[in-house]
Amino acid sequence: MKKTFPLKAPGKDDARVRDKIRHEINKYVRRERKKTVPEGFDLWNLNCKIGASSEAAEVLPLKEVGGAIDKVAATGADVVFVEVVAVAGHRTFTRPL
């Protein structure tokens, strides 16, 4: 998903607009994770980029996307660019000490 979301909507509180953006991103993530993983892979890795524009977007883990939307809104930007791409990957196991 590559999409530019407006951060302001007439008649709506800006916080609710940001909540709607996060909801749409989460809906996309759920839909992608339900897809069948290709043979030889274990899971879907989600590569995320977010910023005020596609050129200024920075790579972030999925957990930090919600907070990054708030940071972009705090800079006074009118729109936020979000890119979330699902890539098949392998699960890595870490052994506890």
Brief sketch in words of this structure:
The protein has 97 residues and is of the alpha+beta class. 32% of the residues lie in helices and 29% in strands. It has a four-stranded antiparallel beta sheet with strand order 1-4-2-3, covered by helices on one side.
Structural summary, described in words:
With 97 residues, this protein is of the alpha+beta class. The protein has one domain (2-89). 32% of the residues lie in helices and 29% in strands. It has 2 helices and 4 strands, in the order E-H-E-E-H-E. It has helices spanning 14-34, 65-74, and strands spanning 2-6, 43-51, 58-60, 79-89. It has a 4-stranded antiparallel β-sheet, covered by helices on one side.
Q: What kind of sheet is the major sheet?
A: 4 strands, antiparallel
Q: Compute the CA-based radius of gyration.
A: 15 Å
Query: How many domains make up the 3D coordinates?
Result: 1
Supply the number of helical segments. Answer: 2
Tally of strands: 4
Form type: elongated
Query: Could you name the ranges where pLDDT drops below 50 across 5 or more consecutive residues?
Result: none
Considering DSSP H and I runs of 4 or more, what fraction of the residues is helical? 25-40%
What distance lies between the first and last C-alpha atoms, to the nearest angstrom?
Answer: 38 Å
Q: What spatial order of strands do you see in the largest sheet?
A: 1-4-2-3
Q: State which percent range the strand residues make up.
A: 25-35%
What structural class is derived from the secondary structure elements? alpha+beta
Give me the strand/helix succession: EHEEHE
Mean pLDDT comes to 94
